[in-house]
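Why should sequence recovery work at all? Because a backbone constrains its sequence more than one might expect. Tight turns favour small or flexible residues, buried strands favour hydrophobic ones, and helices have their own preferences. The token representation captures these environments compactly. In the example below, the structure is given first.
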């Protein structure tokens, strides 16, 4: 990634800060086991770096000052664990000029804290029965030494940046979506009755890796029959039975940007009459809500319109008589912002702007009939309305039947 893009992001962030405010972003640490390192998304957004434990400081005084603290490479240890990034490498790749080592952080941070009144940091969410995170520990200590300083989670100042996607970001998302689409098409083609859900997961994983992407954006949901009624089903260990549909809710990630696509298809190659009835309703709602996406419309409005349509569909399908009972068969909201996080920054009641990417994912879940349908597309808000980024991933009844038979 070009460091010019990173410099631009940091400029935009600084514009939002008041004078004497600080941003302190902590990189993720490498977990002991399994050693799967996934960088904190705010740290990655602002520095582009995939190095663990680093700390990035922006101080808005009369002039903004930025300093990045990285691990110091110790030759005796590097023999075992490999080379650490040098100051020069970190500076070249991030475009940040001032780089120091982490062992200098405690002595130097006081110089930034003393004149500041507020810190934005990636506090995140950490439940009270868990040990303090390093951010929480740092803030506690700061407040003891500098009682005048307040601290808050940095999400609020990141939303205006991260929720409006740039051209480069959209390219990453489109790649993630296209590769996910290839994986979905392959699953639909290769799945057979008697296979396990995790075999379908392996087909997806193969396709994603083979296309040069290293990570999934989230743990794939591959749910046969009634499992589809568990919204975040992740076991993926059931066998596919006769006349069953499979619900896929999957997304590869490209350079940290996630796709999020749901498709539901009949493994045998033919929807049963009832499956087709339910599927057609969800598909109609999916398409209708997508056409409503445009700048200025609220997620709230999209949600309300979806609920109205679901209520009518459920009555038509003879599942409910009173429309207020719809929650029994539709429990989630119609979409969310998408980006580095699968549920990306951007409030549930946000009003859409050009450059936002949101999901549209209505569903109907009928556990007593072992039917669960969700159809999810990734939609870019454009000047004139919307662009469906996942338009090439089949969802028409005929297309799905052809692919799976
Ligand atoms: Mn989603």
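From this structural description, the recovered sequence reads:
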């Amino acid at each position: 990634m070009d460091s010019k893009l990173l410099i631009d992001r940091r400029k935009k962030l600084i514009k939002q800060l008041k004078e004497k405010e600080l941003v302190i972003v902590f990189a993720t640490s490498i977990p002991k086991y399994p050693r799967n390192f996934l960088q904190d998304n705010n740290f990655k957004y602002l520095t582009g770096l995939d190095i663990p434990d680093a700390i990035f400081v922006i101080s808005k005084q009369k002039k903004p000052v930025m300093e990045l603290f990285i691990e110091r490479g110790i030759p005796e240890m590097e023999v075992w664990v490999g080379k650490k990034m040098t100051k020069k490498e970190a500076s070249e790749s991030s475009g940040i000029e001032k780089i120091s080592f982490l062992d200098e952080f405690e002595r130097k941070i006081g110089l930034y804290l003393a004149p500041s009144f507020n810190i934005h940091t990636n506090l995140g969410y950490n439940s009270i029965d868990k040990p303090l995170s390093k951010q929480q520990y740092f803030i506690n200590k700061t407040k003891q030494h500098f009682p005048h300083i307040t601290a808050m989670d940095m999400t609020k100042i990141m939303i205006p940046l991260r929720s409006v996607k740039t051209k480069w970001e959209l390219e990453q998302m489109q790649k993630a979506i296209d590769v996910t689409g290839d994986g979905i098409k392959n699953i639909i083609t290769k799945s057979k009755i008697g296979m396990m859900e995790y075999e379908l997961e392996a087909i997806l994983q193969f396709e994603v890796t083979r296309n040069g992407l290293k990570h999934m954006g989230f743990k794939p949901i591959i749910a046969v029959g009634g499992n589809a009624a568990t919204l975040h089903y992740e076991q993926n260990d059931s066998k596919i039975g006769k006349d069953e549909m499979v619900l896929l809710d999957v997304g590869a990630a490209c350079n940290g940007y996630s796709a999020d696509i749901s498709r539901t298809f009949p493994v045998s190659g033919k929807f049963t009459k009832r499956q087709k009835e339910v599927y057609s309703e969800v598909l109609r709602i999916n398409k209708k809500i997508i056409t409503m996406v445009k700048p200025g419309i609220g997620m709230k409005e999209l949600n309300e319109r979806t609920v109205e349509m679901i209520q009518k569909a459920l009555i038509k399908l003879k599942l409910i008589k009173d429309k207020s009972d719809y929650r029994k068969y539709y429990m989630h909201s119609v979409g969310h912002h998408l980006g580095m996080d699968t549920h990306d920054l951007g409030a549930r009641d946000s009003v859409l702007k050009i450059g936002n990417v949101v999901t549209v994912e209505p569903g109907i879940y009928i556990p007593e009939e072992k039917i669960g349908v969700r159809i999810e597309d990734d939609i870019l808000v454009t000047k004139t309305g919307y662009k469906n980024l996942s338009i090439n991933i089949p969802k028409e009844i005929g297309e799905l039947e052809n692919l799976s038979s």
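A few observations help interpret the result. The chain has a mean pLDDT of 95.
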